Amino acid sequence: MFPKYDLIVIGAGHAGCEAAAAAANLGSKVLMITMDMSRIAQMSCNPAMGGVAKGQIVREIDALGGFSGIVSDKSAIQFRMLNRSKGPAMWSPRTQNDRMLFHLEWRKILEQTKNLDFWQDMAVGFVVKGDKVVGVKTSMGIEIHCASVVVTSGTFLNGTIHIGDQQFGGGRIGEKASFGITEQLVDLGFESGRMKTGTPPRVDGRSLNFSKMEEQKGDENSASFSYTSKERMPEQRSCHITYTNPEVHELLKEGFDRSPMFNGRIRGTGPRYCPSIEDKIDRFAERDRHQIFVEPEGWDTVEIYVNGFSTSLPLDVQTNAIRKIEGFEKAKMFRPGYAIEYDYFPPIQLKHSLETKSIQNLYFAGQINGTTGYEEAACQGLMAGINAHQKVRGLDPFVLSRDEAYIGVLIDDLITKGTEEPYRMFTSRAEFRILLRQDNADVRLTPRAFELGLIGEKRFQDFQEKDREVNSRLKQLNEQSVDLDKANEVLLEKKSAPIKQKLKAATLIPRPELHIEDVRRMHPNLERVGENDFEDQQIEESVEIRLKYQGYIDREKDLADKLHRLEDVIIPKNFAYSELNALSSEAREKLQKVQPESLGQASRISGVSPADISVLLVRMKR
Length: 622
Known about the structure:
Helix content: 25-40%
Strand order of the largest sheet: 15-16-17-18-14-19
Strand content: 15-25%
Number of strands: 21
């Protein structure tokens, strides 16, 4: 019935969609297995993409030829660039999205992708020969043969949903859990664990009083995620902000004895940086209010996502407490918040390619690796799909370093340090975040995507044209001197120190109080004429950032080059760390468990000291 596939992708969430699309577009014959075709790319939690560090990841996915950015732009109902008050390394794009449109756009893309087939069924295990996966078993008793498998199971592996005293199986509310995969992987020698996540109630927007809340509009000059987008959003929907209060907290506390979080029924570890409302009240007892973001679920729906009110408390407690929030006095609930526990596999069992170390051609991506978030899952899916294709074709794995992409930071963190709680990306996790800005993801990654074959000639030419324009404007600003009188007129207006002689325009842009448009007013030849204001703004932003932060950028590049020397020192497979008595006992244990591929990776393992690295370096030289 089924042909033999190059790749089978298990799951159709954010990771599964990117994995299937990438491998199919590279030329592999791909089958996507999902339990429900109507839930492809379901936004299980908040209807939004991007945010701090996550927005950079979406830009990187787009620069590599993935589709999360394109789908986010097509389904966006609001765009905001977060952290504008900080330096550009912290700027992070974010969209509020139409949940249904997001799913439809992804499904449309996948159905129009050559080499990609679909099968609605539950994957319950693998066909394994020796140390290699060669197929997938489904709940219908079917065996489908393939050369590689990417598992993107999300929260479905032995998923258990908790709402107060109620507990039942499920991968999402209204959807059954998946069984069989965990059990087989454990039998094959894999280590597994349990994690927990949660989601807030959804309410009827018609029952809310938005006049009591603070309106949060989108950016007036909206940007986009995808480098292929050429226009601003013509229309946006507002979000709103309100707050909990002491009365809300007291009502919630009344249900703590029935909370699965506090009575021991939930044993999985939850996300540290996205706690439930009961966890926030318990951990931050000194605070008398917590912020609630009131987010619409789409253009044509009244459904509202109550961001900040994630909970697994009993339904009656949730209902009584939420109606004490300002603006929620008459709130009608569509569905309650709930917590979900699920199986994951500690990611130190993976290689940098996301292939498992013990079973060849088997790849994990997304929450199965202990991460949380659509963006973290999507980028892993993209990399797993690329690498499954590469392996089947006998090509080298595609790996991004920590100074190339947040994606590289995320994967290196996972397989080098592991995680015992849901991993979320932050800018602080990246030591080269000035290099890894959201504005330059295309410069960093699009040439590599073109080499792989993930983007076509036309898109690469568009990238080159934009890059040439940026360099042309940099050259102009570095060569043209400002008019002395005009310059001092602008400097006086901006409360900046006047100049006594003509200077090159580029030398003035690093001043904190000046922007590129200020410097362009200092000489008529510097005025720009952009045919497309949207594209022109992106180019000018790139030019200004390069000039303002060139010193910092050069410093980080030098540091990255030095650290790359350690990455070039390869550690042989199955290296006998136990024979090196000069290593600390902790280092021997951690190195033996992780089996780092290079000295650079070894240096990032928790518990491995610089002295231990020196010992390894001496041994490698011998």
